[in-house]
Amino acid sequence: MMNDECVEIRALEPEDLEYLYKWENDMDLWDVSDTLTPFSHFTLKKYIDNADKDIYETKQLRMMIVRLEDNMPVGLVDLYDFDPYHMRAGIGIMIHNMENRKQGYASSAIRLMLDYCFETLGLHQVYSSIPSCNIASLKLFESLGFTQTGYRKEWLKRGDNWEDVIYFQQLASTWKQS
């Protein structure tokens, strides 16, 4: 468990099942999560039951973001494509409910996760791929010192349209300076 004055990020617990079920099946979020089909309670319960496995085994880590003032889960922060040889991982964030956005929860959670990545896991870099229409996430990652390092034209299919993706990267050497 890691925290600052605003949020804590912690491992998934069995009592998080209903939050995961609601969030993973919210079709408004499927574009950012690349979800194409709903998740069952059974599948998500198995996922939580296996959440105790080591990041070196699963190559991913999902943490619950909890608002400290009332101990309410507000979102998730994920590490994915963990590569211990090349010392890198991808990072993603989801804050559910509009009233929980623009409150500093996402930036706090990412800062905590970056500290974990660079100080505990010893990673060299953390990266993120963000759809070009997700202006809030683009601004968030830029505000945290991530550098834009790539652009993929028409990378994601959205219905009958295509969307570009922008790649961002944070190096341990520049994070420690901030």
From TrEMBL:
Residues 7-172 form the N-acetyltransferase domain. The lineage of its organism: Bacteria, Pseudomonadati, Bacteroidota, Bacteroidia, Bacteroidales. GO terms for molecular function: acyltransferase activity, transferring groups other than amino-acyl groups. It comes from Candidatus Odoribacter faecigallinarum. InterPro entries: Acyl_CoA_acyltransferase, GNAT_dom. This is GNAT family N-acetyltransferase. It comes from the Bacteria.
